[in-house]
Amino acid sequence: MRAPAVVRHFARIVDLGVAALTVVVFVAIALATGVRSPWPAVIPVALALGALLLLRRRWPMTVLLLSVVAIFVYHLISWSPPGWIWPIAAAYVTAAATSRVRWVAVIGVAQLLYSAIDARWVIDVNPPVYFLHVLGEGVLLAAFLGLGLAYAAWLRWRDRPDPKDGSGS
Predict the structure, then answer these.
(1) What does the pLDDT average to over 6-28?
(2) d(CA 50, CA 17)
(3) Per-residue model confidence as pLDDT tens digits over 68-97
(4) S-S: 141 plus which of 18, 108, 124, 160, CB 3.0-4.6 Å?
(5) Who contacts 54 (Cβ-Cβ below 8 Å, separation ≥6)?
(6) Residue 76, class by beta-carbon neighbours within 10 Å (0-12 exposed, 13-18 middle, 19+ buried)?
(7) CB atoms within 10 A of CB 65
(8) Degrees, nearest 5: CA angle 127-112-65
(9) Between the CA of residue 50 and those of 32, 88, 107, 165, what are the distances in Å?
(10) Which one of 5-14, 17-26, 34-43 scores highest in mean pLDDT?
(11) How far is it, in rounded angstroms, from Cα 133 to Cα 139?
(12) Residue among 84, 67, 63 nearest 136 (CA)
């Protein structure tokens, strides 16, 4: 008997939902933090991030790297409030669930360092805000890496052989 279409296509439905949520949240936060017109940079970058997430299961590291590049480009071409790690949360979690988690951490730390350097002008204006920016982005990075590792561990646990059915050794 064939499973219902919703069950067969659940991964695609989840990917579409994650992509749509990323686009909506990225644009909403940009607008809430003072971006006047989202059309020149916010919406194109949000759509690019969402489109990349549709490929995250097949090419998690490529999606992560291209997402990081999109965030760099966004911050180079447009004023933006702090937000280097959270917009690509799904890419970090997915890539951290792979065997290349060390590379994911290296990429994240490099992105975090660059964001700290990019926001250095805030030190002169408001040091606590700068500290909270760097600390907050670092905590988010650690949380996303932890979620990816936990998801990978859950998948290994779920796929382990059941000792009750005699297939285990």
Answers:
(1) 92
(2) 10
(3) 999 999 999 987 776 899 999 999 999 999
(4) 108
(5) 15, 16, 19
(6) exposed
(7) 16
(8) 155
(9) 19, 9, 20, 42
(10) 17-26
(11) 10
(12) 84
Read off the tokens for 72.
């760099």
pTM recorded for the entire structure: 0.90
Reading the block at residue 122, the tokens are: 């805030």
What's at 25, amino acid-wise? V
Q: The dihedral of CA 6, 12, 18, 21: what is its sign?
A: negative
| CA atoms in the 13 A half-sphere facing the CB of 136 | 11
Q: Is the dihedral of CA 112, 41, 120, 137 positive or negative?
A: negative
Return the DSSP state at 155.
H
Contacts of 57 (CB under 8 A, 6+ apart): 11, 15, 94
Token code pair at residue 58: 């097949």
The residue that leads in pLDDT, 3 or 164, is: 164
What is the Cα–Cα distance from 54 to 111, expressed in whole angstroms?
22
Residue that is written with structure tokens 């695609």 in the block = 12
